[in-house]
Every structure is written in C-alpha cells, then in structure tokens.
Amino acid sequence: MATVSIPACTSALLLDIEGTTTPITFVKDILFPYIREHLEEYLSTHWEEDECKQDVHLLKKQIEEDMRQHRSCPVHTVDQTVHTDEEKAIREVMDNVLWQMAADRKSTALKQLQGHMWRAAYSSGRIKGEVYQDVIPSIKRWREQGLKVYIYSSGSVEAQKLLFGYSVEGDVLDLFDGHFDTSIGAKAECKSYERIAERIGCPPEEITFLTDVTREAGVNVVVVVRPGNLELTDDERAHYGLVTSFSQLELTGRA
C-alpha cells in the first residue's frame, strides 16, 4: 500500500485505538473477557466504596434512560441462590453490564466501570497494553515535526491512559497531548469533532483522524487497515486514504 499524504495545514493528529494503534484481538480476547470473568468478584469486593457506588449510580441512570427511550433491557428473573438485597442489586448490575457488552454498546457508564476494573488488572501486571510496532516510532516522528497527537476512542479516558501507561513498550503517556472519549460525543457524530477541535484550539480542517472505520467527521480521515478490521467496500477504498502502518503517513510540506 502506497504512502498517504495529509494536508500541510494539519496541526493535530487524532488517533483511534481499537484496530488502529492496538489489535482488535487485544480488546476482544483479553480486555472484554477479563470483565466478564471478574465482574461479580469486583462488585462484591468494592460495592461499599465511593468509586464503585458512583459507577453503579451511572449505570442505573443509563438503565432509566434506556427505559425512557423504550430500548430493550435485560429481564430480571428470580434467582433462588440470591438471598440478600446486596446480592440482588449486584446481580442486576451484572445482568445490565453483560447485556450492554453483548450488544457492543459504548455507553459512558459501562466504559467507566470497565476502566476501573482494568486499572486493577494493569497495575497488578496481569494485563499489558498492546500497541502495533509502528505506532510509537511514528508518534515520536510526528511530534518531532511539530504535530500534536491526541487519542479519541470509545474506551474511557482512564482505560486509554491505562493501555498506554502500562503498555508493552512501557509508559508512553508523555507522547500524547490529550485524550477524548464518548463523554465529548460519539465518534459517529460530526459535532464530537467540532467539540474536540474547540478543546484543542484549532479548526477542524487542521485535524487528521486515524481510525479503522470509515466516517464523515468534518475532519480529514485516514483509514487504518489492520488484521481483523472490517472489510472496506470498493467505494470506501476509493474515497479514503488508506494505510496499513502509521509509517506510511506522509506529512506534506514538513521535514
């Protein structure tokens, strides 16, 4: 695949994570199974702590919003093994979290709880964040060329910082100028990129977004083609700049 040039006016690069900086398999085969396998243990252990209470509060607000919007929610059946109010409440939270994950939802409430669980796993060394080998050298090169580099992912900011703070390459957080998640808006909404541009302090046309999914974002988009990513249509291949490695990105008019 040939190199892709981005406009000389570009002052900031926005990077997606899943399928872009990091293999999709890392999220699908390591991070998500960790949540499913350790959810009950985590909730039972931390149920009375303020952070966990806040996570549960956000999840309950999400459930209320889903009901108002007539979205389907898990149906709670009577479980004869549950004896206390706390056990019942934990089971209801578990049901909702597992339902959201099965539906591949990106709610802020879900991402916040997941982030807190992953923090414990990363800090204990049970998980290390995977990044493709071309990512760190390319980011260092871009920064040397005067570009700012930000992360924008549906995973929470905390989860992003854990991945890069406890990565296979060590702590590389100092390579990023900032992080954005769904609290600024969904990746499918153009308004989200306007808010990011405002927060960064540059016009949208000066931002290039590297992501694995084609989208009309109001910023320059380069699609990263990695193993396991969704197949692109012929029209998408014709419309977007495509790279299989960050090293293929050429910054026009820069040294």
Label the overall shape: globular
CATH architecture name of the largest domain:
3-Layer(aba) Sandwich
Radius of gyration: 20 Å
Distance between the termini: 22 Å
Q: In CATH's first tier, which class of the largest domain applies?
A: Alpha Beta
Number of strands: 8
Question: How many helical stretches?
Answer: 8
Structural class category: alpha/beta
- Secondary-structure element sequence? EEHHHHHEHEHEEHEE
Helix content: 40-55%
Strands in their spatial order, largest beta sheet: 4-3-2-5-6-7
Task: Name the poorly predicted regions.
Answer: none
Mean pLDDT across all residues, rounded? 90
Structural summary, described in words:
It catalyses: 5-methylsulfanyl-2,3-dioxopentyl phosphate + H2O = 1,2-dihydroxy-5-(methylsulfanyl)pent-1-en-3-one + phosphate. It is an enzyme of class 3 (hydrolase). This is Enolase-phosphatase E1. It is found in: Cytoplasm; Nucleus. The chain is of the alpha/beta class. It has two domains: 142 residues, 3-Layer(aba) Sandwich (Rossmann fold); 97 residues, Orthogonal Bundle (Transcription Termination Factor Rho, Rna-binding Domain, Chain A, Domain 1), CATH 1.10.720.60. 44% of the residues lie in helices and 12% in strands. It contains eight helices and eight strands; from the N terminus they run E-E-H-H-H-H-H-E-H-E-H-E-E-H-E-E. Strands 4-3-2-5-6-7 form a six-stranded parallel sheet, sandwiched between helices. A two-stranded parallel sheet has the order 1-8. Strand 3, helix 6 and strand 4 form a beta-alpha-beta unit. The longest helix has 23 residues. The mean pLDDT is 90.
